[in-house]
Amino acid sequence: MRNHRELRALRGATTAGANTSAAITECVEELLVELITKNDFKGEHVVSVTFSVTIDLNACFPAAIARRWTGWNEVALLDCQQMAVIGDLPRCIRMMAHVWLEPGQKIFHPYLRGAARLRPDRSSSIVGQSSYS
Q1: How far is 71 from 125, CA to CA, in rounded Å?
Q2: Which of 4, 29, 66, 84 is the most buried (most CB within 10 A)?
């Protein structure tokens, strides 16, 4: 344990409006802001983050976007392609972060934009543009 914190796994997801670097950057940054602010942690508390993307997203690496965040230079970051499942949510970016949090701290898993449909029980109020219906 690090300074009396508990290692927790945080999940989240979002969708990109298009397969462009700009669209992916926008939604990944939005997802990270929501994850960090709602769970109240700093980069030094993050152990690792794995991003998975659907097969229709290949314009840039979400981990490269996360790597630019202040204090995230020591974070282990990984991108992978998600299983291609018929009927899956298009242009979806999922993530799992391992973060040291205060014991008993309530955790928030952000599911934004079109990804709110994946986990309506955990969806956030941020609903950006998505063509998924």
Answers
A1: 27
A2: 66
pTM value is 0.87
Domain coordinates in residue numbering, the chain: 6-110
∠ CA 46-93-58, nearest 5°, is 115
33 sits in the region (left: phi over 0; alpha: psi -120 to 50; else beta) called: alpha
Where residue 112 falls (left for φ over 0; alpha for ψ -120 to 50; beta otherwise) is: beta
Q: Tell me the C-alpha distance between 108 and 123, whole Å.
A: 9
The confidence score (pLDDT) of residue 2 equals: 54
For domain 6-110, give the CATH number. 3.30.1330.40
